[in-house]
Amino acid sequence: MSDFDETARRLTVKLVYYGPALSGKTTNLMRLHDLLQPEARGELMTLETQGDRTLFFDLLPLGFRAPSGLLVKLKLFTVPGQVAHDGTRKAVLSRADGVVFVADSQRTQGVNNAEAFQNLADNAARVGLDFDRLPLAVQFNKRDLPEIYSEAEIRERWSATPWPLFLASALNGDGVRETFLALLARVYADLDRLYALRTDHGLDEPAFIRAAADAGPRRQAC
Ligand SMILES: Nc1nc2c(ncn2[C@@H]2O[C@H](COP(=O)(O)OP(=O)(O)OP(=O)(O)O)[C@@H](O)[C@H]2O)c(=O)[nH]1
Ligand SMILES: [Mg+2]
Prior knowledge:
By secondary structure, this protein is α/β, with parallel strands linked by helices. It is about 35% helix and about 25% strand. The chain has a single domain, classed as P-loop containing nucleotide triphosphate hydrolases (Rossmann fold). Strands 1, 2, 3, 6, 7, 8, 9, 10 and 11 form a 9-stranded mixed beta sheet that branches. The model is unreliable at about 40-45 (pLDDT under 50).
């Protein structure tokens, strides 16, 4: 749930990268961090991880000012994908304004993807999010690996769903920005309805997306 502080003229928005263990959620944030403006980067803070495994979450904060002076802060989180960390996933998902579901394209990971997607729907309900209205983008990552589901198979399987679908190889950055931009577009519609971004703050959808995608980020892993 976005947080609008009228006195401080600040809007805080929470975006969450969700998905099965090792699908590439943290790598998405790392590549976004690389792609966004280097001169505005803050410290990279890494707390507890175990090998590639996120134990709590990663955080990449972005910020920019609307023409009205409103400070828009975007907080990008990753959840830990390992099944055991469900409590943390729920906490991170709580009050999310939008979600990227990062699936693993490898054929061995079909069941894990499905379970993680169900877990997202279940946890959304548990934390009071309306899953049917939640801005969501779906990314199939690791396209560079052998033994992956074909694009046709993936598109066929997801054809009845309303969410935009992206193929990515987060390791080398392919598809990372496109996925993020699609989520921003979906989130903008809700924010504009709630806070009249276009009429009261001079921020239409293209300007919002441009500003957010160019904002100088800082990444913190916890
Ligand atoms: N080949 C390939 N490897 C990838 C890609 N994206 C991520 N990886 C690798 O997959 C491993 C797991 O990536 P992470 O980003 O840590 O995965 P995660 O989803 O954050 O995992 P958890 O924190 O355990 O939930 C790492 O070794 C990454 O380098 C990709 O597009 N291609
Ligand atoms: Mg991770």
